[in-house]
Design brief:
By secondary structure, the chain is mostly helical. It folds into two domains: 8-118, no CATH class; 125-149. The protein contains eight helices and no strands. Helix 4 crosses helix 5 and helix 5 (88-98) runs antiparallel to helix 6. The longest helix is centred in the last third of the chain and has 16 residues, at 103-118. It starts with 7 loop residues before the first helix and ends with a helix.
Protein backbone atom coordinates (compact mmCIF):
# COMPACT_ATOMS: atom_id res chain seq x y z
CA UNK A 1 0.00 0.00 0.00
CA UNK A 2 1.85 3.07 -1.26
CA UNK A 3 -0.15 5.42 0.98
CA UNK A 4 1.82 4.04 3.93
CA UNK A 5 5.52 4.65 4.48
CA UNK A 6 7.55 1.77 3.08
CA UNK A 7 9.22 -0.37 5.72
CA UNK A 8 12.56 -0.96 3.99
CA UNK A 9 13.61 -3.69 6.41
CA UNK A 10 10.36 -5.61 5.93
CA UNK A 11 10.75 -5.18 2.16
CA UNK A 12 14.27 -6.67 2.22
CA UNK A 13 13.28 -9.51 4.56
CA UNK A 14 10.40 -10.48 2.26
CA UNK A 15 12.69 -10.40 -0.78
CA UNK A 16 15.28 -12.44 1.07
CA UNK A 17 12.70 -15.04 2.11
CA UNK A 18 11.54 -15.42 -1.50
CA UNK A 19 15.07 -15.55 -2.87
CA UNK A 20 16.11 -18.21 -0.36
CA UNK A 21 13.46 -20.49 -1.87
CA UNK A 22 14.81 -19.85 -5.36
CA UNK A 23 18.60 -19.93 -5.04
CA UNK A 24 20.57 -23.14 -4.56
CA UNK A 25 21.96 -23.61 -1.06
CA UNK A 26 25.59 -23.64 -2.21
CA UNK A 27 25.33 -20.70 -4.59
CA UNK A 28 23.42 -17.71 -3.16
CA UNK A 29 24.74 -14.49 -4.73
CA UNK A 30 21.41 -12.63 -4.61
CA UNK A 31 20.74 -13.72 -1.04
CA UNK A 32 24.25 -12.57 -0.15
CA UNK A 33 23.56 -9.12 -1.65
CA UNK A 34 20.21 -8.87 0.14
CA UNK A 35 21.86 -9.86 3.44
CA UNK A 36 24.49 -7.16 2.90
CA UNK A 37 21.67 -4.68 2.21
CA UNK A 38 19.88 -5.82 5.38
CA UNK A 39 23.05 -5.22 7.42
CA UNK A 40 23.41 -1.73 5.96
CA UNK A 41 19.77 -0.94 6.77
CA UNK A 42 20.21 -2.25 10.32
CA UNK A 43 23.11 0.16 10.81
CA UNK A 44 20.85 2.97 9.49
CA UNK A 45 23.66 4.01 7.16
CA UNK A 46 22.78 5.75 3.92
CA UNK A 47 25.33 4.76 1.30
CA UNK A 48 26.57 7.32 -1.18
CA UNK A 49 26.10 6.48 -4.86
CA UNK A 50 29.81 5.57 -5.05
CA UNK A 51 29.47 3.23 -2.05
CA UNK A 52 26.43 1.58 -3.66
CA UNK A 53 28.47 0.85 -6.77
CA UNK A 54 31.30 -0.56 -4.64
CA UNK A 55 28.97 -2.74 -2.53
CA UNK A 56 26.44 -3.93 -5.10
CA UNK A 57 27.95 -3.18 -8.50
CA UNK A 58 26.89 -1.04 -11.43
CA UNK A 59 27.40 -3.13 -14.54
CA UNK A 60 25.09 -4.72 -17.09
CA UNK A 61 25.45 -8.11 -15.34
CA UNK A 62 22.22 -8.85 -13.44
CA UNK A 63 24.06 -9.72 -10.22
CA UNK A 64 25.79 -6.34 -10.39
CA UNK A 65 22.70 -4.28 -11.28
CA UNK A 66 19.56 -5.81 -9.72
CA UNK A 67 20.70 -5.31 -6.09
CA UNK A 68 21.77 -1.77 -6.99
CA UNK A 69 18.32 -1.03 -8.42
CA UNK A 70 16.68 -2.38 -5.26
CA UNK A 71 18.93 -0.30 -3.01
CA UNK A 72 18.34 2.80 -5.17
CA UNK A 73 14.59 2.42 -4.70
CA UNK A 74 14.95 1.97 -0.95
CA UNK A 75 17.44 4.84 -0.56
CA UNK A 76 15.15 7.21 -2.45
CA UNK A 77 12.40 6.75 0.13
CA UNK A 78 14.18 9.46 2.09
CA UNK A 79 15.45 12.85 1.02
CA UNK A 80 18.76 12.83 -0.83
CA UNK A 81 21.56 15.24 0.05
CA UNK A 82 21.85 18.12 -2.42
CA UNK A 83 18.69 17.08 -4.28
CA UNK A 84 15.45 18.82 -3.52
CA UNK A 85 12.87 16.89 -5.57
CA UNK A 86 10.13 15.46 -3.36
CA UNK A 87 8.84 12.88 -5.86
CA UNK A 88 10.15 9.45 -4.75
CA UNK A 89 9.98 8.09 -8.31
CA UNK A 90 12.20 10.92 -9.60
CA UNK A 91 14.52 10.56 -6.59
CA UNK A 92 14.82 6.83 -7.36
CA UNK A 93 15.83 7.49 -10.96
CA UNK A 94 18.20 10.29 -9.91
CA UNK A 95 19.93 8.14 -7.30
CA UNK A 96 20.22 5.14 -9.63
CA UNK A 97 21.83 7.30 -12.32
CA UNK A 98 24.18 8.79 -9.71
CA UNK A 99 25.64 5.34 -9.03
CA UNK A 100 27.27 5.41 -12.47
CA UNK A 101 28.14 2.46 -14.65
CA UNK A 102 25.27 0.94 -16.62
CA UNK A 103 22.87 3.69 -15.57
CA UNK A 104 20.14 2.99 -18.12
CA UNK A 105 19.75 -0.61 -16.94
CA UNK A 106 19.89 0.22 -13.23
CA UNK A 107 17.63 3.29 -13.43
CA UNK A 108 15.08 1.41 -15.55
CA UNK A 109 14.84 -1.40 -13.00
CA UNK A 110 14.79 0.99 -10.04
CA UNK A 111 12.10 3.09 -11.72
CA UNK A 112 10.05 -0.02 -12.44
CA UNK A 113 10.22 -1.01 -8.76
CA UNK A 114 9.15 2.50 -7.71
CA UNK A 115 6.31 2.55 -10.23
CA UNK A 116 5.14 -0.90 -9.13
CA UNK A 117 5.06 0.30 -5.54
CA UNK A 118 3.53 3.77 -6.03
CA UNK A 119 1.47 3.23 -9.18
CA UNK A 120 1.95 5.08 -12.43
CA UNK A 121 0.36 8.28 -11.11
CA UNK A 122 3.72 8.96 -9.42
CA UNK A 123 5.35 9.45 -12.83
CA UNK A 124 5.21 13.14 -13.78
CA UNK A 125 3.22 13.93 -16.92
CA UNK A 126 6.23 15.49 -18.64
CA UNK A 127 8.16 12.23 -18.19
CA UNK A 128 5.33 10.14 -19.64
CA UNK A 129 5.06 12.50 -22.63
CA UNK A 130 8.69 11.73 -23.51
CA UNK A 131 8.27 7.95 -23.39
CA UNK A 132 7.91 6.11 -26.67
CA UNK A 133 4.93 3.77 -26.83
CA UNK A 134 3.57 4.82 -23.43
CA UNK A 135 0.04 3.73 -24.40
CA UNK A 136 1.24 0.25 -25.36
CA UNK A 137 3.21 -0.05 -22.12
CA UNK A 138 0.20 1.03 -20.05
CA UNK A 139 -1.99 -1.50 -21.85
CA UNK A 140 0.52 -4.30 -21.21
CA UNK A 141 0.76 -3.29 -17.55
CA UNK A 142 -3.04 -3.43 -17.22
CA UNK A 143 -3.11 -6.88 -18.85
CA UNK A 144 -0.34 -8.10 -16.55
CA UNK A 145 -2.23 -6.83 -13.52
CA UNK A 146 -5.42 -8.58 -14.65
CA UNK A 147 -3.51 -11.82 -15.28
CA UNK A 148 -2.00 -11.68 -11.79
CA UNK A 149 -5.50 -11.83 -10.28
CA UNK A 150 -6.55 -14.94 -12.25
Amino acid sequence: DSSEKLDSMKFILELLEKMERIENKGNTPYCDSLKKMKNILEKKKDLSPQEVGENFGNSVIALKSVPTAIYSFLRAQKKLPNYKNTNPFIRTIYFAISVGGDTDTIATMAGAIACAYYGDDIIPKQCKERCDKIKEVEQLADELLKASYM
